[in-house]
Structures are given as C-alpha cells and as structure tokens.
Amino acid sequence: MKLSLLPLALGGLTIGITEFVIMGLLPDIASDLNISIPTAGHLIAAYAIGVVVGAPTLVIAGRNMPPKKMLLAMAAMLTIFNALSIVAPGYNLLLVSRFLSGLPHGAFFGVGAVVASRLADKGKEAQSVAMMFSGLTVANVVGVPLGTFVGHNFSWRYTFVIIALIGLITFVSLIMYLPKMEAGKKVDVKSQLVFFSKVEAWLVIFITAIGCGGLFCWISYIAKLLTDISHFDEESVPYILMVAGVGMVVGNLLGARLADRFSASHSVLAILIAIGVILTGVYFFSGNQYASLVLVFLTGLTSFALIAPVQTMMIQTAKGAEMIASAAIQASFNIGNALGAFLGGLPLVYGYNYASPNLVGVAMALLGAVITVVFIKTAKGNLVPLTAEEKAMMH
Fold first, then answer.
1. CA 296, CA 279: separation in Å to the nearest integer?
2. Would you say 308 and 394 are in contact if contact means Cβ atoms under 8 Å apart?
3. Can you tell me the distance from the alpha carbon of 306 to that of 268, in angstroms, rounded to the nearest whole number?
4. Is 267 helix (H, G, I), strand (E, B) or coil?
5. 225 by DSSP, 3-state: which?
6. Positions in the chain whose pLDDT score sits under 50
7. Does residue 254 contact residue 311 with C-beta atoms inside 8 Å?
8. Cα(182)–Cα(203) distance, integer angstroms
9. Which one of 134, 190, 339, 349 is least enclosed by Cβ atoms within 10 Å?
10. CA-CA distance, 94 to 100, in Å (whole number)?
C-alpha cells in the first residue's frame, strides 16, 4: 500500500468504529446512564442523522477547497466530537456528540475517494479507493469487537478514547503523508442539485434508506439479541461480532462481483429478498446458538452485499452530478441506520422480546424490494453503463 493512502484507511477505520461500535455498547451505556435500551438506541439514530445532515452540507460547502485541507477539517471533527463522548456527563450531551460525530462521515469518504483515485497508478484506481475502504473492513472485523470488549470489561468511555486516538493519528498522518493537491475545477451547485429532479434518484434513495433499515433493525440490538435470546454470555459478544464482521467483508466482495456481472437493480432486488428471508430466520431460530452464529454471518454478508449494487444504481442516475450523488449515497445509508434503530426499537417499547426488531427489518427489506421493482420499470432503458473511473469510485 502506498504510504499516501494510509491516512485515508485510518480515516475509514475511525469512521467504521464510530458508526458500528455503539450497537455492541448499548447495554453498557443504558446501564451506566440509567436509561432504557430503546432510548439508548437513539444514539444510533443521532449519528445517522448527523451523516444525513453533514454529507450534502459539507460536501457542497467544501466543494472548491483543496482536498488535503478538507480532509484535515473532517479528521479534526471526528477526533474532537468523539472525544466529547468521553466526557459527556449524561445522555443529552452524549446524544449531541453522536450527532456531531456523524457530520464528517460522508464528506470524508466523498473527498477521500477522489483523492485515492488521483493518487493511484494508471489502471489501479479501484484498488486505490478500495484501500481507503479497507479501514471499514478492519473496523468491522477487529475494531468493533475490540471496542465492544473494552466497553464490556472496563468502560464504554474508554472505547471512545480509543476512537479519538485513532482520529488524532489520522489527522497527524494526513499532515505527514498526504501530498498537497490543487482543488478540482469549480463546481456549480445548481448543476449538482438537478440530480434531485430525477424520479430514479429518489427511488434509489428510498431503496437504500428503507432496504438498509433491515440491517440496522438487526444490528442495533444485536448485543441483547445474543444474550437474551441466544443465551450467549456477555463475554462472547465481541467474538460473535467478529463473525458478523467477516460476513460483511465477504458480502462486500460478493456485492462488487454481482454489480460487475449482472444488472445492479436486479442484484439489489435479489439481495433485499434474501435479507428478508434471513431476518425471518433470525426471528424464529436465534434461540439455537448454532443457528444464531450462522445467521449472524449470513445477515452481515447479505446486508453488505447490497452496498456495491446500490452505489452502481445511484451513480448511473447521476450523470453530471456525481458529487451530490456521492453525498446522497452516504446520507441514504444512514437514513436507513436511523430508521432501523428507531423502528426496530418500537416493539421493545411495547414489551416484545429482542428478536422482534427483526420482523420490522423483514418488512423494511421487502418494502425496499417492492420499490426496486418500481425502479426497474421506471428506469428501463434510461441508465448509462459506468465508465472505468466511475467503477473505481464505486469501490
């Protein structure tokens, strides 16, 4: 790996742990702050709303800034706002810090993908961008389980100490290793906003937000699902999250293959139906520990297999407005994050068990499949195949 790509991978690691570790820490935070698990689940939604607000706002605001300066600003925000979670005395400030931590998420990945492709050797743009997203892979396989282990055995605040330290290392490495680059050609905001006049664009946003909500109905309450329904002990949860992380890695690779070999929209349709089937299995069979482990792997796999085909659909609808489409991708995924955490928590509020959020996830995944069918009929013949450079950006 080129040393200049290291800061981007570290940024991906910071963001990945920040977004996903909270799911494993909900019982610890709820106990420490004397709040219910569904109330603690709002911390997941707060981060997601931060991404939704920050992705388009910061991408547009910094559209003409030099990339290194923009990335340094995003890394500083990640570090400071995660550090705020360490000292938050109560739930309200922690909620605010989670919202603020989400703001730089989309902008970092959007600008980082551009920088990674510009740093790449000719013909290796996809590999270069993939190196940045390798930080997310490490986060799901190692960072999130480690953060959960620290939270369970010491304090959830120490987990945010680790995240803030990685954010600080990201900031320093950006200064040291990322070369200065000139800002790209000036971008007209009005030309970007035309993207939102397309029916196909809104359909992809709805597919992503609603379909991905199924994942977050499951993963938002996974710690209590594993302990209360599958009857694993708390010490096992970090290791089981590693199984989910491996599934996500495999699913991400599988989704990229599907996006390259088949129609993106038909791939999304098949994956959403598969998510619905597997979440049904989670509801009925998580009482068996062996079945639960298999389902954890399969749910992680299918949920992350969705990413590349959905990104392909979004980019295909965004000719001439790729910048705002990139922000819309991040925002849409995190609308799903917020919806899944909130809607998945409703059955818990009414006294149902920790398997019940998965039925909400089934409904969301299948509704996403229905919208995908509408997209297929609406967009037939209107989509342009991706260029090699666009495929690189997608990965």
1. 10
2. yes
3. 6
4. helix
5. helix
6. 388-389, 392-395
7. no
8. 35
9. 190
10. 10
